[in-house]
Amino acid sequence: MSLRSDVYHAYQIVRSHGIPDDQIIVFHFNDIADHKLNPTLGVVINRPNGTDVYHGVPKDYVGADVNPKTFLKVLSGDQELANAGRKVLKSGPDDHVFIFFDDHGAPDIIAFQDNYLYGEDLMDTLITMHANKTFAKLVFYLETCESGSMFDKLLPKDINIYATTASLPTENSYQWDLDST
Question: What's the start-to-end Cα distance of the chain, in Å?
Fold first, then answer.
């Protein structure tokens, strides 16, 4: 199982529940499906006896575009990105927004390929989104080590954001799946 394949699995779950592609924005490095060590080239299977979770996943933001600056711009509905034909969050005061992020982390950071997103920067963006009425409710699922540190003592209680994390602020997060065969 790979951190990088979890986004594909999450995408398949969201789509299977009827959320259309125009309401989903996917960031992924896109570096495992055709990797020379992948025994099933072009296919990504992220659990024992699983099916391909890669097929059909959009390439909204891939490779070098997967970075903290772009991520925060997308959440903020950046008009420059939108004018360039890129997907950005286009939500309003009645919308429910779901964010799923899965990668590596450490206290007060989310790791991107070559960069870090700091808790304070994420919180500034989320607070601004709330002030700009870009959601009625927002759910943020964060799967990284020490992921609790991104919200602990930073997330205001009165802005309709529910954050769930894979670990406490000072705890590692370990992924695993039981192979029952």
Answer: 16
pLDDT digits (tens, 9 = 90+) for 139-180: 999 999 999 999 999 999 999 999 999 999 999 998 776 666
Contact between 150 and 166 under an 8 Å Cβ cutoff? The reply is no
Could you give the domains of the chain? 3-165 (3.40.50.1460)
Total residues belonging to the chain:
181
What predicted TM-score, i.e. pTM, was given to this entire model? Answer: 0.92
pLDDT digits (tens, 9 = 90+) for 64-108: 999 999 999 999 999 999 999 999 999 999 999 999 999 999 999
Q: Which of 17, 96, 130, 145 is catalytic?
A: 145
CB 52 within 8 A of CB 43: yes
Q: How many Cα atoms occupy the beta-carbon half-sphere of 114 within 13 Å?
A: 6
- What's the DSSP call for residue 21? G
Active site residue 145: yes
Assess contact for 173 and 147: CB atoms under 8 A: yes
In degrees to the nearest 10, what's the CA dihedral of 7, 8, 13, 18?
100
Active-site residue, selected from the candidate residues 28, 96, 104, 130: 104
